[in-house]
Structures are given as C-alpha cells and as structure tokens.
TrEMBL record:
It comes from Bacteroides faecichinchillae. It holds the Pfam family Resolvase. GO terms for molecular function: DNA binding; DNA strand exchange activity. This is Site-specific DNA recombinase. The lineage of its organism: Bacteria, Pseudomonadati, Bacteroidota, Bacteroidia, Bacteroidales. Residues 3-152 form the Resolvase/invertase-type recombinase catalytic domain.
Length: 212
C-alpha cells in the first residue's frame, strides 16, 4: 500500500477544512493509499516558501518516511494565488515529491519521478481560472457593499450589528464543533487557531463556554 500525506488549506470555516480531509481520506482508502499525516496549508503570502513552516515540515516528513506523494483536493488549495501555488509545486518537485490533485485526477510527477509538462500546464491554467473567479467574487462583494452603504446613508439607516447583539451558547456550539473538540483535547489556543483558521479571541470565548 502506497503511503501518502494530505495537504489541506486552513479555512475560516472549520467544517470546510474537515470536509477536505474527510473526502481525501475516503478517496485514498478506495485507491489503496495509506494516509500517514495531514498538513495544514496556512496560505500566508507574506513569507517565502523556504520560510513556510508547514511546507518545510511536509517536505521533511516525506523525506524521512520516504513518501513520494502529497494529495490535495483542488489545485486552489495549494496557494491563494497562481505564483504562490506554482512556487510550492516547484519546491515539492525539486524535493522529489509529487502532488496529486484529486478533482482533476492529475499528478505533477510521472511514474519515473519526472515532471509532467502537461500537468504543469493544466495546473497553471486552473490556478489562473481560480484567481479570476476570486477577483470576480471580490468585485461583486465590494459593489454590493458600496450599494448597501449608499442606501443606508441615503435613507438614514444605521449600519452594522445592533449594539446588543450576542451569540448564544447554542450558536457557538453549532458553529464551532471542531474548535470545541480540540479545546477539550487540551490543544493550545494558538494551535487550534492554526488548524481551524478561527481567531484566537473567538477560540478564547468558546473555551470559556466549554468551561461553564
């Protein structure tokens, strides 16, 4: 049985992050791959690839355990933009690690460990498409927000949440099951924030609720 590791992107939606892991784990089981570790891609463009702790840890792990394949759900999960994602793919390639992208069933290295030029082209195109989609969504959101602000100003409507707005305990429990589970396991607030993408302040509120 081939051993692989999963690379999933940390999201502000903990359920989406867990969905990535569940779907990839199920797929690997069906094709006969054994998942030995899961790495969380924090998608931080402020650092160089060589300074990205999660990527360095991933490469160190696959070298130590002689694992040649990293599995991700979609190419957009590798990086938040085309340049960042391609740098990560190149970094993996230089270290003899192949990236398998599940939704298109493509792999960056062939059976001989050589770069697959067709896959490289497909990945670049898919990353550019994903980038354009994100830009379009951002423009629509900004346009919608501007229209909302203009209407509120014109009609004298107070913007934002009511000053008395508070999430109920039940709402926290429904929205943050993963965070609650990790808190009960004794993980630090910082580690939980990295894994789930939830802010430390929010996790602190959840911890207080759990302790009640």
């Amino acid at each position: 049985m081939d051993k692989v590791v999963i690379l999933a992107r940390v999201s502000t939606d903990s359920q989406e992050y867990q969905r990535q892991i569940n779907e990839l784990t199920d797929y690997c089981g069906k094709v006969g791959w054994e998942v030995t570790e899961v790495f969380a891609n924090k998608v931080s463009g402020a650092k160089k690839i060589e300074e990205r702790e999660e990527i360095l840890s991933l490469v160190e792990y696959v070298k130590e355990h002689r694992i040649k394949r990293v599995v991700c759900l979609e190419i957009s999960r590798v990086g938040r933009n085309t340049l960042e994602a391609l740098k990560i793919i190149q970094f993996l390639t230089e270290n003899g690690v192949s990236l398998f992208v599940k939704n298109y069933n493509i792999e960056t290295l062939d059976a001989n460990g050589k770069p697959n030029p067709i896959t490289s082209l497909i990945c670049t195109i898919l990353l550019e498409i994903a980038s354009m989609e994100r830009l379009t969504i951002k423009e629509r959101m900004e346009s919608g927000r501007k229209q909302y602000i203009d209407r509120c100003r014109k009609e004298g409507i107070k913007m934002g949440r009511p000053s008395t707005y508070r999430k109920s305990v039940e709402t926290y429990k429904e929205q943050y099951p993963k965070e609650i589970s990790l808190i009960r396991k004794g993980l630090s607030l910082k580690n939980i924030s990295v894994i789930t993408g939830t802010s430390i302040n929010t996790i602190r509120k959840i911890r207080d609720i759990v302790r009640q």
